[in-house]
Amino acid sequence: MKLLLNFAALLFCSMLISQENIDTLKVKTNWKTNGNAIFLINQSSFSNWTSGGQSSVSGTLKINYNLNYFDNGWAWDTKILSAFGLNKISGSDFLKKTDDRIEINSVVGKKFNNNLIGKWSYSSFFNFQTQFAKGYRFGKDTNGNSIRTEKSRFFSPATTQLGIGLYWKKDQNFWINVAPMTGKLILVNRLFTKNLNDNQSYFGVKQNGNSRFELGASVRSFYKTEIYENITLENRLSLYSDYLDKPKNIDFDYTLNVTMKVNKFISTNLVFQFVYDDNEIKRMQIREVLGVGLNIDLQFISGYKKAL
């Protein structure tokens, strides 16, 4: 936790120094780049508290970055999402993760229609997802001691999707991509599959395997709006159906991020995420994170050529 706090402080100071120099840079280009880093912290402490409670501290560092290119009807939109968070609870033998995510979304489109409600493009999209650190399942041994069992790690799993279809975009805050032909590749470490039974799988990968290929359809969308002054809702939805295996079982990933801005540097963030993946567990996965955040602007280039 101390390492995470020190890293966040160092990042904050370096960005403030570099921003002064960046503000003087005026470059005309077809690229538009922007992003932000957010450090969320939660803390609770109890001493002689009669109603009970456990002291805890947690911190999460999120770095999101956007790269957008426009030229002669071509559009290339890329979003990089990353987050890593740890939690320390008094009396617990282990640090536990509150967040762990690496995701890259990229869509290339060639505009063929433009009207008052948006632009239609032929598109090709790429998505990649994995995690930074090992994930564990926590429990007790026969003597009542705390134990943990590794269940995932960096690149296990790693999921890649590549598809072609149509891309509708109203603006940077509202778009939908439909890809009826999407290939999906899941990579895992054989460490997690070598001891499986014939009827078991690890993220869909069978015994002694390290990959699984799927062919299906994908729908991805993004919508961001300010509902009140300084209160922003950001919605992300991903749907996927595998033509080759149980096409009626639709995987989905929906994330709602509510940002309540206090000032330029401080905000409160509330995140809800709902995930269902038939290859993982046949139950709804739900995640909720609430914290006070320190915001750092990562915008490096402020000028760009307007799209034709």
The value of Rg in angstroms is 22 Å
| Low-pLDDT stretches | 15-25, 301-308
Q: How many beta strands in the DSSP annotation? A: 14
Strand order of the largest sheet: 1-2-3-4-5-8-9-10-11-12-13-14
Query: How far apart are the termini?
Result: 48 Å
Q: What is the beta-strand fraction?
A: over 45%
Average pLDDT confidence is 87
**Percent range for helical residues?**
under 10%
Structural class: mainly beta
Strand and helix order: HEEEEEEEEEEEEEE
User: What sort of overall outline do the alpha carbons produce when their principal axes are compared?
Assistant: flat
Description:
Helices cover 7% and strands 62% of the residues. It has one helix at residues 2-22, and strands spanning 31-44, 56-71, 74-89, 96-115, 118-130, 135-140, 146-152, 158-171, 174-187, 211-228, 231-242, 251-261, 266-277, 281-297. The N and C termini lie far apart (48 Å). It has a domain at 85-294. The protein has 308 residues and is mainly beta. It has one helix and 14 strands, in the order αββββββββββββββ. A twelve-stranded antiparallel β-barrel has the order 1-2-3-4-5-8-9-10-11-12-13-14. Strands 6-7 form a two-stranded antiparallel sheet. The radius of gyration is 22 Å and the shape is flat.
